[in-house]
Design goal:
Elements (H helix, E strand, L loop, with lengths): L3 H8 L2 H19 L3 H20 L5 H19 L10 H19 L7 H7 L2 H25 L3 H9 L5 H8 L4 H25 L1
Helix pairs in contact: 2-3, 2-4, 3-4, 3-5, 4-5, 7-10, 8-10, 9-10
Length: about 200
């Protein structure tokens, strides 16, 4: 089911996400080249969340440093590969790797009562990243569908989902005779948007 509310909440920060990913590609290049500033920025922006996760799961600050260092090595080695393409934020990648490494260590120390095979099922990093990439692809498809839907549908859906305007407000803004007519038009626009979206989705 297409969740327009979920999409529009993320669309508000879409431009910021794109800018962030571009900046992080620069950081990755710096990391691959052992640039001190890039390494320090990655540490500064990501270590606190890893430390919180480890501390909340039977670990210490020293454990968090060790795990984070291991994850940084993984990222460093991958960043130097031409075939490596990071389509999610660095923090997503590092958190996934750190979580996997730490839960494996807990299992090894006997502090995590789950078989290793089950841990692999719980935290498959590659699948997490694939899911993240799929969501990004869906957002891109939706944004493209919005650009094709035309007016007044684009502005109407934007006003309803992003600006949180009610039907009476929409009727006044778009010149409909009453709230029911605005609701009917919004429904038609939504159907049109879904049609465009799923046509693109099928083609991909």
């Amino acid at each position: 089911m297409l969740d327009l509310g979920y999409y529009f909440r993320h669309l508000r920060i879409n431009n910021r996400i794109v800018q962030t990913l571009e900046q992080e590609q620069i950081l990755l290049k710096g990391l691959a080249g052992s640039d001190k500033n890039s390494i320090e920025l990655i540490y500064r922006d990501n270590f606190s969340s890893i430390q919180s996760f480890v501390l909340n799961n039977n670990g210490s600050v020293d454990d968090a440093r060790d795990i984070f260092q291991e994850a940084m090595i993984v990222l460093y080695e991958n960043a130097g590969k031409e075939s490596f393409k990071l389509n999610c934020q660095i923090k997503t990648y590092l958190y996934s790797v750190c979580r996997r490494l730490w839960l494996k260590r807990l299992q090894h120390l006997g502090k995590f009562n789950t078989k290793l095979e089950t841990i692999e099922d719980i935290i498959p990093v590659e699948l997490e990243l694939e899911d993240h990439e799929k969501r990004n692809d869906d957002f891109n498809l939706m944004e493209n569908a919005m650009s094709k839907i035309g007016e007044p549908c684009k502005s109407l859906l934007d006003a309803y989902y992003m600006q949180k305007k009610n039907m009476q407000e929409l009727a006044l803004e778009f010149g409909y005779t009453n709230a029911d007519n605005a609701k009917t038009q919004k429904y038609k626009c939504l159907l049109r948007l879904k049609k465009i979206f799923f046509a693109q989705y099928k083609n991909t």
